Amino acid sequence: MDVVNTLGRRKTAIARIYLKEGDGKILINKRDYKEFFPTAILHYVVEQPLQLTESMGKYDIKVNLSGGGITGQAEALRLAISRALIKIDPEYRPVLKENGLLKRDPRMVERKKPGQPKARKKFQFSKR
Q1: Which domains does the chain have, with CATH numbers?
Q2: What is the pTM of this model?
């Protein structure tokens, strides 16, 4: 099996991954993922597609992550891993789809409008 290359996005975060057979190392920007993501919740988010397909420890994953915050980056990585697993074995698709891991979350930050302090907040109205 050669290297499988996929992309995942969430908010402004972009995850480019290279997945190949190995012993389960996940390197993000040349650091271990447990060191890169500080909380157990984010570790779970990253591992979720691997646990659902029972392929934990079967693949080495090298990740280039950029943009966004840590939650957006973790969810972008989850989408990229899910897409890579489907490229390897299309049998995984129903399991991942059922758990909502194949949908790109389209929610983005709304832009700030002129004459307002934020996207929707207005300056205080004064009658006099």
Answers
A1: 4-98 (3.30.230.10)
A2: 0.91
Token look-up 């909380």 returns: 39
Write the CB contacts of 7 (distance below 8 Å, at least 6 apart in sequence). Answer: 14, 15, 16, 17, 80, 83
Cα–Cα–Cα angle for 2, 90, 40, rounded to 5 degrees: 80
* Mean pLDDT in residue range 18-36: 93
- Map tokens 């646990």 to a residue: 51
- Other Cβ atoms within 10 Å of 83 Cβ, number: 21
* pLDDT value of position 2: 87
End-to-end Cα separation, the chain, in angstroms: 73
pLDDT at 102 over 80: yes
Q: How far is CA 128 from CA 106, 109, 115, in A?
A: 43, 34, 19
Give the whole-angstrom CA distance, residue 94 versus residue 108.
27
